[in-house]
Amino acid sequence: MNELQGAGVALVTPFNADGTVDYETLARLIDYQIEGGIDYLVSLGTTGETATLNQEERKQVWAFTSKHVNKRIPLVAGIGGNNTHEIVEQVKNFESLDYMAILSVSPYYNKPTQEGIYQHYKAVAEAAKLPIILYNVPGRTGSNMSPATTVRLAKDFSNIVATKEASGNFAQFSEILRDKPEGFLLISGDDPVTLPMMALGAAGIISVVGNAYPNKVSTLAHLCAEGNFEEARAIHQELLKITDLCFVEGNPCGVKYILERKGFGKDNVRLPLVPVTDGTRKLIDEEMEVLG
């Protein structure tokens, strides 16, 4: 899966004031990512507020994104949840529309055992027509997918091709890289650790802050891939504060405000999320001035 090397971006879903999807802004945002050198896009990952979209809305966003991208760069669709039967049906019936893979988050809230996580992904892998990217994000799901479970899945199912790791646990990253089968990819799920993860051997990043700063994120990932960590370090440090501010009041609230400042629609989000407070807006404004 060479298409998963480098910088991917988990696209936000722009909304109008009435809560409907703002497709005009989504189109311009997609173009901004491609012009900024992003290698592939993830449509309707966590950052896309997918949990607040109904199935018909998701189909429409996937179809619009595919049509507007028009094969200029690869696409990944986010399909995950804690109802295994429902997710199996969704991946089974997913119309590929030029998508190359499915990003599927580990089941949340239920807190399954490692065997439960394995059996969930086993059912998904057996039903899917496209390659599967695992997604481990314990801070959101309430449970961690262990390195042993990740590697077991990677070895047992040839269509499980990568894992997006957002555990923040470098011992865990190292175990996956040591034990994984050849060709299976480790992808960073946290912007601030892209550089050290790629130094260990990760393939790249699926970024949030890349929505607002695609050129910086793509340049960072490409420099790391070339082994040029000295130049990459400067960009890494430059992005640290704005990345923190993106998450201080929840994702994608912060990055949506940055996008509004850059002219990409309004920072509308769907409940239970709310826009960032005036205090955070002020801090973001100040850091955006620093970044130019």
Overview of this protein structure:
This protein has helices at 23-35, 55-69, 84-93, 114-127, 138-141, 147-156, 170-179, 194-200, 214-225, 229-247, 253-261, 278-291, and strands at 6-10, 40-43, 75-78, 99-105, 132-136, 160-165, 185-188, 204-207. With 292 residues, it is of the alpha/beta class. The protein has one domain: Alpha-Beta Barrel (TIM Barrel). The chain has an eight-stranded parallel barrel with strand order 1-2-3-4-5-6-7-8, surrounded by seven helices. α4 links the parallel β4 and β5 (132-136). α1 crosses α2 (55-69) and α10 (229-247) packs across α11 (253-261). The chain is globular and about 50 Å long.
